């Protein structure tokens, strides 16, 4: 596709985000299921609801532009989601899995923060002030989600570290008993 204007690029990037958000809507319920910490589960559930609202904001913008939001697949998000599902197949201890899920979720948030920052700047340049405020709202939600995950990680990482200490100890005792036998 030949790109001739900033407006065209803006629309392409919006389509990319529309695809990204819809991929997240599919991925988050799996993350809710996989998470063991109830706080993390709740966090993912809340962000799922938020994400539905973010899709609605994008639809509003597309309606206003008289363009279809469809027709593009965000490959970046596809890769992130794929890595996330690989994680969930691993045989992790509880807190360790949660720590890994937070890592994956924060990658997603940072990807979105970058993408929304770009489209907001394009909207500003194009004089689309209504779009700017809609995109800004979503951008703030993504940033807050990222911060919340950082907060949650503190406690979960510590727990994961403790659990792995216990697992290591178990292994050493097993080895010792084997040697003694
Ligand atoms: Fe989002
Ligand atoms: Fe997000």
Task: Give a verbal description of the structure.
The chain is mainly α and 181 residues long. The chain has a single domain (6-180), classed as Ferritin (Up-down Bundle), CATH 1.20.1260.10. It has five helices and no strands. Helix 4 (94-125) runs antiparallel to helix 5 (129-180). The radius of gyration is 21 Å and the shape is elongated. It starts with 5 loop residues before the first helix and ends with a helix. The protein binds fe (iii) ion (2 copies). One fe (iii) ion binds at residues 47, 51, 109, 112, 142, 145. The site of one fe (iii) ion has 6 residues, from helix 1 and helix 2.
Describe the structure in brief:
By secondary structure, the chain is an all-alpha fold.
Structural descriptors:
binds fe (iii) ion, elongated, single chain, Ferritin, mainly alpha
Helices and strands in order:
Blueprint: H1 6-34, H2 38-65, H3 75-89, H4 94-125, H5 129-180
The structure holds fe (iii) ion (2 copies).
Question: What gyration radius follows from the Cα positions, in whole Å?
Answer: 21 Å
Bound molecules: fe (iii) ion
Q: Low-confidence runs (pLDDT<50, min 5 residues)?
A: none
Structural classification: mainly alpha
Superfamily (CATH H level) name = Ferritin, core subunit, four-helix bundle
What gross morphology would you assign? Answer: elongated
- What CATH architecture do you see? Up-down Bundle
Which topology does CATH recognise? Ferritin
Order of helices and strands: HHHHH
Overall number of strands = 0
Give the % helix: over 70%
Whole-number count of domains: 1
Name of the CATH class = Mainly Alpha
Number of helices: 5
Classify the beta-strand content into a percent band.
under 5%
Summed over residues and divided by their number, the pLDDT gives a mean of 94
The end-to-end distance, rounded to whole angstroms, is: 71 Å
The biggest beta sheet is recorded as: none
């Amino acid at each position: 596709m030949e790109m001739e204007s900033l407006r065209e690029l803006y629309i392409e990037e919006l389509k990319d985000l529309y695809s990204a958000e819809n991929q997240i809507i599919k991925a988050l319920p799996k993350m809710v299921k996989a998470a063991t910490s109830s706080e993390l589960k709740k966090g993912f559930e809340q962000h799922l609801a938020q994400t539905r609202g973010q899709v609605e904001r994008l639809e509003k913008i597309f309606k206003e532009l008289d363009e279809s939001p469809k027709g593009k697949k965000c490959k970046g998000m596809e890769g992130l989601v794929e890595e996330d599902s690989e994680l969930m197949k691993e045989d992790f201890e509880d807190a360790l899995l949660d720590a890994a899920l937070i890592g994956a979720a924060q990658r997603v948030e940072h990807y979105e923060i970058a993408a929304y920052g770009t489209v907001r700047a394009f909207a500003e340049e194009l004089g689309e002030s209504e779009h700017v405020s809609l995109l800004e709202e979503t951008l703030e939600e993504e940033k807050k989600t990222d911060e919340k995950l950082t907060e949650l990680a503190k406690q979960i990482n510590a727990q994961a570290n403790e659990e792995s200490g216990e697992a290591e100890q178990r292994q050493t005792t097993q080895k010792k008993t084997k040697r003694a036998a």
